Amino acid sequence: SILIVDFGSQVTQLIARRIREAGVYSEIAPFQSAAEAFTRMAPKGIVLSGGPASVVDEDSPRIPQEILDSGLPMLGICYGQQALTRQLGGQVEKGAGGEFGEAFIDIGAPCALFDGLWTQGERHQVWMSHGDHVAELAPGFRPVATSKGAPFAIIADDARRIYAMQFHPEVVHTPDGAKLIANFARHVCGLTGDWSMAEFRAAKIAEIRQQVGSAKVICGLSGGVDSSVAALLIHEAIGDQLTCVFVDGGILRQGEAEQVVGLFRGHYNIPLIHVEAQTLFMNGLAGVTDPEAKRKFIGKTFIDVFEAEAKKIGGAEFLAQGTLYPDVIESVSFTGGPSVTIKSHHNVGGLPERMNMKLVEPLRELFKDEVRALGRELGLPDVFVGRHPFPGPGLAIRIPGEVTKERCDILRKADAIYLEEIRNAGLYDAIWQAFAVLLPVRTVGVMGDARTYDSVLALRAVTSVDGMTAQAFSFPGDFLPRVATRIINEVKGVNRVVYDYTSKPPGTIEWE
Ligand code: XMP
């Protein structure tokens, strides 16, 4: 395994991800507790992350001495490079200006990190983000790559197997970065690269058992990939100490409740409470048109219902959530700065404090595609694993204006036709998310010989890597007209269909 010492970079989890991609197990430990993690793990290699501090400052984070003295291969990234340099006897200077963003490095010498990848004389794109820089190498080091702003873009001490770079190999903007990290893990540390999701599953199961003991756990199941995978994994770990709660507020898609209840209760035999709270939600949504008011009402009502069910079960000490790493980054980067709330996202946030429960979040280190891989590993059916994301407030935020049961029913039908056509055309997996939006606008149409005066439905489909940015999906020419015709013919209440071409930014994916 590899130990990643975290100096507080925003992208440390990406280092772990790249190492997992190379088929090697890794763990991240904050620099303060890295020495203990080192003793416990007995790793075969060390990666030192970037971080916001300046090694020039006296009280800045340091690499624990036992790690420095271990004789293990080390890879220092950005702050990690500077800490290595300073602690091994070189000089780091506070930069005037620094380098941020795309940069190019010139490969000046061979290096074990370049195996099968780069050769001397080549120039390669990397991603820089640093203020300070190495001014004088520590004894034993030689430069192997340089950039305009960083003469020591990559340095190496071959005898001690210590490599360090000023840029960030873990981000996608360093196109060959994943391979550099894989070379470190496999060629330098000599790890075989046979770690897989199967091992992650086994390790997490052991961890969950250890954390939970004989206590009860409840899990809010939405039917989405994240909560489904979390529930399955936890059930595998602790069996019927887990109870799932599935709240149906009448804002789910067609067939969703049946599918979720059928799979979890029927197929997996996991204790599941199916709460039929349609009336409660619809009554509360009556007259509410402001998007934030809808979101807040739904979030709060969900918590109320969940809490009531948890009380009935009694004695649950833990709340399970399918929190992913991107959720963690977003919430971290939103603390401390004066940031604007674009939308109040709803998951079961707020519950743990209110109910005084401890959290079980087995997916916290993973990215969406890794959760999908874990879902497959756990045998979750493809229709669940590959599902498009669906927001907590559900159809309510796809009905601008007032939400009523009638409008939810109309939208459900139209949405189901749209998705059925997308699946039939083999396009489902090429799209990040596709859905219909029922507009509070009526237009005139003619059907048969009669005049109609009905609602407009907007169709949306986007491609995206992480939901943070998105582009409208381009359907083949005859697809949208066919779907429009089907919807208008089959869904009473809709007589016009339009397509949304807005990208994000400036739009958002959902309409509210
Ligand atoms: P926006 O509309 O902000 O959406 O561009 C980005 C992604 O997040 C989903 N989304 C939500 N997911 N609770 C969720 O769990 C929410 O309240 C919520 N609001 C938006 C949205 O569907 C898209 O995938």
From TrEMBL:
The keyword Nucleotide-binding applies. Keywords: ATP-binding, Glutamine amidotransferase, GMP biosynthesis, Ligase, Nucleotide-binding, Purine biosynthesis. Its EC number is 6.3.5.2. Residues 195-387 form the GMPS ATP-PPase domain. PROSITE patterns: GATASE_TYPE_1, GMPS_ATP_PPASE. It catalyses: XMP + L-glutamine + ATP + H2O = GMP + L-glutamate + AMP + diphosphate + 2 H(+). Pfam families: GATase, GMP_synt_C, NAD_synthase. Gene3D superfamilies: 3.30.300.10, 3.40.50.880, HUPs. The keyword Ligase applies. It is an enzyme of class 6 (ligase). InterPro entries: Class_I_gatase-like (IPR029062), GATASE (IPR017926), GMP_synth_C (IPR001674), GMP_synth_GATase (IPR004739), GMP_synthase (IPR022955), GMPS_ATP_PPase_dom (IPR025777), NAD/GMP_synthase (IPR022310), Rossmann-like_a/b/a_fold (IPR014729). The active site is at residues 78, 168, 170. ATP binds at residues 222-228. Pathway: Purine metabolism; GMP biosynthesis; GMP from XMP (L-Gln route): step 1/1. Catalyzes the synthesis of GMP from XMP. Homodimer. This is GMP synthase [glutamine-hydrolyzing].
